[in-house]
Amino acid sequence: MSVVAITPDYESKIDIRDRLENFHGNQLVYVHWEQHLSFCAALAFPLPPAMPFAALVEEVIKPHYAAHPDAAKVDWTKVDWMIDGEKVTPDPAKSLAENGIGHKSLVRFWTPGLAGHNGLGTC
């Protein structure tokens, strides 16, 4: 995100620590299960761009959300996906990069029929 300074001679002294080159070949990917606010914010993972999308689901998403009571009920063939604000149908065999997931991308997903506690999207 760019910043517009209020003075013309402003110089940032901040060392940006989440730059891509600081992740040793990985990229930072945010993942959020919508309507399940037991997880109040997206989870962040340093992942290789070459990781297949199927591995993201099986090795990252499923284990990290497994504690939620709805997790075992998810029909992964019916999940709705959004990557960086765009609705998509990811190709499980293609890499994160090939599916449009880059450094600091936000991957959001919805699970039809599962909307948290009593369908309220609250937990």
Lay out the secondary structure.
Blueprint lengths: L26 E7 L9 E5 L5 H13 L14 E4 L2 E3 L16 E6 L13
Parallel strand pairs: 1-5
Antiparallel strand pairs: 1-2, 3-4, 3-5
Describe the structure.
- The chain is about 10% helix and about 20% strand.
- The chain is of the alpha+beta class and about 120 residues long.
- The mean pLDDT is about 90.
What's a quick, concise take on this entry?
By secondary structure, the chain is of the alpha+beta class. 11% of the residues lie in helices and 20% in strands. A hairpin with a 2-residue loop joins strand 3 and strand 4 (86-88).
> Order of strands side by side in the largest beta sheet?
2-1-5-3-4
The total count of helices amounts to 1
Overall average residue pLDDT: 89
How much helix, percentage-wise, in residues? Answer: 10-25%
Main beta sheet strand tally, sense and closure: 5 strands, mixed
Low-confidence stretches: none
How does the helix and strand content classify structurally? alpha+beta
Query: What is the beta-strand fraction?
Result: 15-25%
Radius of gyration: 17 Å
Envelope shape: globular
Cα distance, first to last residue?
Answer: 31 Å
